[in-house]
Amino acid sequence: MLPNIKISSKYADALFSASVADKSVNSIKKDLELFQEVLPQYKEFFKFLNGPVHGVNTIVEFMESISKKCKLHDKTIRLLSIIARHRRLNLLSSIIDLYLAKCREMDNKKLIEVRSFSKLSKAQIGELEGALKKKLDKEIIINNIIDESILGGIVIKCDSFVIDDSILNKLNNVRLLTNKILI
After folding, report:
1. Mean pLDDT score of the chain, rounded to an integer?
2. Do the Cβ atoms of 142 and 127 come closer than 8 Å?
3. 70 to 36, 101, 121, 130: CA distances (angstroms)
4. What is the structure's pLDDT at 59?
């Protein structure tokens, strides 16, 4: 496990444990989903904030001010203050991902990433959800990502398990096979 993931995991675990203890899981989940939605638009700003130009107290005050204006849960505000104080705002995205994964696990849900050349139809998504629900015995949430580089087919990713039925993968396998034959 990468060092940043280990650190992010500790923050996410601590936040999740504390939120379960005081039954604030859903409030914090909503806060973090909001940040997850907004964060990609302001990635450069967070890099700037996390840089050496600003003092730690300024960054912490700024994060607390924004958090209070957004009426975030106290535990969310504390998390943002702590990671700002330790200059770890760059970990916020992975902390959010890990926390939300714990929420899905608690709700017996599984997030499946499906890469396809074009957007899957509702019928295709429904069929895929049904098959995966039977296999995993969990409610399935599909995140369909359009990836034209796969040329066609789909790539299904669940945790560290990957099923690659893309045309790109098939072409790569043919190339490897022909290289072995020619050598």
Report:
1. 90
2. no
3. 14, 23, 36, 38
4. 83
Distance in angstroms (rounded) separating the CA atoms of residues 150 and 152: 6
CA nearest neighbour of 81 among 47, 97, 111, 58: 58
Kindly state the tokens that stand for 56.
Answer: 């730690």
8 Å CB contact between 93 and 6 = no
Q: Which domains does the chain have, with CATH numbers?
A: 3-104 (1.10.520.20), 108-182 (no CATH)
Q: What is the pLDDT of residues 113-159, one digit of tens each?
A: 999 999 999 999 999 999 999 999 999 999 999 999 999 999 999 98
Sheet strand arrangement including 153-158: 139-146, 109-116, 153-158, 161-166
The pLDDT of residue 165 is: 95
Q: In whole angstroms, what separates CA 131 from the centre of its chain?
A: 23
